[in-house]
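Handout for the seminar on molecular recognition.
Each group receives one record of this type.
Step one: identify the two inputs.
Step two: read the structure output and locate the region that could contact magnesium ion.
Step three: write two sentences on what you found, then compare them with the reference statements printed after the record.
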Amino acid sequence: MPSGNQQKNSNQNDVKMLISFIIMAVIFTSIFNIFVSSITMRRATEITYTQFLTMLENKQVDTVEIQSDRLVITEKPEQNNEVGFYTNIGKQYYTGIVNDPVLTDRIIKAGATQYREVQNNSPIITFLASWALPFLLIYIISGLIIRSVSKKMGGVGGPMSFGKNTAKIYAQKETGITFADVAGQEEAKESLREIVDFLHQPEKYTEIGAKLPKGALLVGPPGTGKTLLAKAVAGEANVPFYSLSGSDFVEMFVGVGASRVRDLFKQALENAPCIVFIDEIDAIGKSRDNQMGSNDEREQTLNQLLSEMDGFDASKGVVILGATNRPEVLDKALLRPGRFDRRVIVDKPDLKGREDILKVHSKDVKLSNDVDLHQIALGTSGAAGADLANIVNEAALRAVRFGKDRVEQNDMMEAVEIIIAGQEKKDRIMTESERKIVAYHEVGHALATALQKNTQPVQKITIVPRTMGALGYTMQMPEEEKYLMSKEEILDQITTYLAGRAAEEVIFHTATTGASNDIEKATELARNMVAQYGMSEKFDMVGLESIQNKYLDGRNVKNCAETTSAEIDEEVLHIIKQCHKKAIELLEQNQNALHNIAKFLLEKETITGKEFMNLLEQSREKELI
Ligand code: ADP
Ligand code: MG
Ligand code: ZN
């Protein structure tokens, strides 16, 4: 198996590195020692013992140093008698040791000093001075060089760092997060609870012979709380949490990622029971077969991960959690039993889930009594947990900005709009005719909604421009959450989208660019009706498109021939035309209401759903009279 070799290979590489380092250090130190001794010896000239004795007799000797293997003789400096300066600093000589019992006497007679080398010949100190110290120096210096070089090259560890790299392993002893902090993911929590229990008392499972899944994969759209859930599992089980993001593994150097995986698992095993969390695992786990050209680094890293997952003993209590929003690109090998064999879906929250998440996040926020989180939850269908957390924070910020001491419902509503449409842009100046067009356009949408009984009532209409491009918009708040849409409802929805432009046509007999977003959404709905929902007569229930990245943008992939594709377009055109016609008819029949409400909106800039409905009733009564 390739992954098994992988592990061996990398271990061998480490050993090779170490050996070559030792050889290098030995050579360096030898050279260093030769160099040092050549410096200290340079000044000494060898003389015979007889010459030494002659020097003693001539009283030329200043000191005699008795070393273990030689005598080092320092000559008396020659004195320049006239000036009194030494012209010559004592020259050094050395000679071998001869068994001379009267040496000391001779030296004293000659008026020289004798001393013995101070315990310099202790083997330990000699070794330390001449070997260990240079060794250490070389190690430190080379370490510094390698670090600075690899930093420049973008890697943290670098290939020369003997497999010891400082990967950004994010380790937490206690995450401090529990399931109570994760709202609205009941099913996900339920499937993770078993893992928590296992980490608590692995014996309970091993005793009976049960093998727990080694890993679970958290799958879902961004911001739904996957990372949060992983931390909560660690928090609930009260075990350390090791995490690395998939992208941390992908480095410039081949092999760095693999060694990081090894490090991660080594650390984890030392600290078992614990959780290993690999976020955004698709960065390494991408399927190997559908790529143009191969990526050695990623492949090695993936192989290492696979082999580590196989290699460790699950009964030790290490559980691997992965998170991704693109499960479909993951390599099949990662998903097979014994690896990430459990899938925990972390989907966007439903109405109750949203309300719970809002509750969790407003726990520490001072709320006024009028705050109705249920209503906010209603208006934020499709929002992920991260969006909702953001909304609560925006509301609190807004309350501060307005000098309030509590967050009120209008802060919440405004925050929802900020998240949906961006900040208000009060300073953008629109000409009067532009404002008029925008007002009629928005009222067109709202009227279409109200007039078709199947669609949701409006919450608010505004013509204050927003930073995210909207010049005005109609906010809808459903009274209840819907999971299914009927064909009629979809058609009504398309009509509502098209009614903005229809209003421009009915009143001003013109078309503006303001409808581009409406058109995009309407077309998408119509196309899905034909290609995915089986709602056209022509294609009956044939699936012509499928969704690829379910948890991301959800791009559609065609499953049909080019000619069929052209026919789909025709069907879509047919639907759009039909709805466009309906929108125009609706507005023409209610021109009175359209004018009245638009006038009111132009004056007020923002009207609420209640005001809108009142105006609509009034206009209708007038018409009846
Ligand atoms: P993901 O990893 O799925 O992209 P995160 O776990 O990083 O999302 O979530 C981002 C933030 O959104 C969290 O820190 C938390 O504040 C908030 N959040 C998301 N989902 C939830 C939830 N179900 N309950 C409470 N807070 C949530
Ligand atoms: Mg995440
Ligand atoms: Zn519009």
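Reference statements: The first helix runs from residue 2 to 42. The CA atoms of residues 309 and 339 lie 6 Å apart.
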